[in-house]
Amino acid sequence: SFFEYEFLKSFKPRFAPAAVRRVTLAFETVWNNHTAIDALEEWVVNEITFESPKEPLLHANFFDGTFKHVVANERPGRVNNIHATYVEHFEYGQTYEILMINYDPQLHPWHLHEYSVDFIAASKIPTLKSNKCNGTRQDLKQFDYNTILPLLTSTPRVLSIGDSFNIPRESYVLFRFTANNPGPWTFYCHMQWR
What we know:
There is one protein chain. The chain has helices spanning 57-64, 137-141, and strands at residues 21-32, 40-45, 48-50, 75-76, 82-84, 95-102, 108-112, 117-124, 160-162, 164-167, 171-178, 187-189. It is mainly beta. The chain has one domain (4-189): Cupredoxins -  blue copper proteins (Immunoglobulin-like), CATH 2.60.40. The strands form 3 sheets. The protein has a 6-stranded mixed sheet, with no helix packed on it. The longest helix has 8 residues, at 57-64. The chain is globular and about 45 Å long.
């Protein structure tokens, strides 16, 4: 089966709380194949290639409550991307929904530190019909997820709970979590390629 979540059934049904906001994180590998001298690939999330902070984010949060002096200086990439330290701020006690979209042709393992999340949806990206002879990856990016995902105000059934998961190629995973563990926590793909 494409997703292990499909066959999981809890003994006691559990429902995710309503969310205040959806954060979409779309990722893929982008290639610089325009020049023969640089066959570079870069992995991006929302067109951003991860750049390590200058010092641990927890230090910055402890010393002055901001991340301004520790995040890496943003710089342009070579494949229509940027290099930056991406930080997403969540308000304590609020529930958020994260939509992870894998446009890449390979599986990606992800891990969120210090939280267990409620997985509420997972599937292949629905195929869009192309009016061209050959469909392109861009066709995948045109899909409107609002047509199939639960409303933020709904309380959908939880498929599974965890902090580490795989997202198969050309698919998505949707989860919710309540920001009730203060501090900066990392969320990353386990593929270490830089």
